[in-house]
Amino acid sequence: MEPKKNPKADLTRNSGLYFVIGLALVMLLTWRALEWKKYDKGDNYDISLNVEDQLDEEVPMTEQIKTPPPPPPPAAPEVIEVVEDEEEVEETVIESTETSQEEEVAEVEDIQVEEEPEDIDVPFAVIEDVPIFPGCENAKDKRACFNEMMQKHIRKNFRYPEIAQEMGVQGRVSVMFTIQKDGSIGNIRMRGPDKNLEAEAKRIIEKLPKMTPGKQRGRAVRVPFSIPITFKLQ
């Protein structure tokens, strides 16, 4: 017995394509339905502002104020009187600064100009008359005697600070001071590795005796002097 169905008539052959087309149509209709908008055709709306007019009072008209004309200028006097100046003015007499022949003129040689002494510092190495340390008055070389007496003074008054000894501090302290015009010691400055050593060096210099001041051209001047003091642990 032969089958009645045509073998070429396969209904499921294009079912996938039909499903996709149908799905696309359904999605298109759904999107259009969601985007559908409806507008009123009537134009019956009022575009004017709903503002009540509350200005019921009448505003009076401003009146024009007329300014009065300026007063007329004063009339000029018919007769001009001339008043004479009766006050007398004293004249200032300017005296001449030129000298007459009768006055005596001082000559330039007779005028003496006093020179004011200048406070200058003359270094110890170049001063004419060095300061005299007590005990060097009769020495032939007062400069060498001064240096020798300075070393004796330092050795005599030298004292190593205990704090520096405990800390093991040693070194050289450069001391600078000035022998004033009256022979006193001033302007002491120190530079060293430790403050305790600097304080000891200052104490030694402050114990220096008063000296005979140094002189330059026969006039007392200030003399700066510097000397190193060495602190060395045994």
From TrEMBL:
* Gene Ontology annotations for the cellular component aspect, listed alphabetically: outer membrane-bounded periplasmic space; plasma membrane protein complex
> What are the protein's GO molecular function terms?
energy transducer activity
Bilayer topology reads: Single-pass membrane protein
- Biological process terms in GO annotation: protein transport; siderophore transport; transmembrane transport
Pfam families in UniProt: TonB_C
- Transmembrane portions of the chain: 16-34
Q: Which residues form the TonB C-terminal domain?
A: 145-234
The cross-references to SUPFAM superfamilies, in alphabetical order and at most eight, read: TolA/TonB C-terminal domain
Location in the cell reads: Cell inner membrane
Keyword annotations from UniProtKB, A to Z: Cell inner membrane, Cell membrane, Membrane, Protein transport, Transmembrane, Transmembrane helix, Transport
- According to the UniProt entry, the coiled-coil residues are none
| InterPro entries named among the record's database cross-references | TonB, TonB-dependent_transducer, TonB/TolA_C, TonB_C
Name the protein family.
Answer: Belongs to the TonB family.
PANTHER family, A to Z: PROTEIN TONB, PROTEIN TONB-RELATED
This chain belongs to the protein called: Energy transducer TonB
